[in-house]
Predict the structure.
Amino acid sequence: MLEPLNRVVLFLSPRPGRDLEFLQKGELIRSYPHLRRDLRRLGAAAVLAELAGELASPPEAAAPIFAALEEALARLEDGLPPDSLLVSFALHFLKLGGYGFHLATCGLCGQEPSPPLAFSIPRGGVVCGACRPQAPSPLADLSPGTWKFLRQAQEMPRDRLSRLALPAWQRDQSLVLIRAFLRHHLALELKSWSFWEKVAIERPP
Ligand SMILES: [Zn+2]
């Protein structure tokens, strides 16, 4: 019951004078057996679960973030490919946690951004080619296609996120900037990144 990614209800009883409580019993609400048998889907689920836990510290953010996590795990369990799900749900969690990216306009000039685009990690948003030399660094590369995907994913309601698709190189470009953003703004390095990187490359059967 206490395996990672299971949803459970735990019944605790207090121990007088101690910080920790007794675990009386637990009930399994939902598990994800198919997801667990596929390393790529498991890797994406591990990153999303860890990110959700880290971002859910303000109580008002916890309920929507865990509802979104449950949706992501359900779609992975259904067999949807993990690449676009990982990126789009990570972005959705960041928005719910109050760390939404600024993607609609260039963060410096305020115009519709024209290429070559970049993503300013300190600004948490897109900058246009003309503003790029003055933009706060570090900067991450951002192709027009990746920018469009991130913008759609951030604006889209949760129940439609699983319809988005992106190629592997755009997935990697997105994950590089999400990872740098978490490091810069939250001093956060997820333990599950290294597992994801080991399993991310799809190998021929
Ligand atoms: Zn600009």
In short: Strands lie at 7-13, 22-30, 118-120, 125-127, 139-141. The chain has a mean pLDDT of 93.
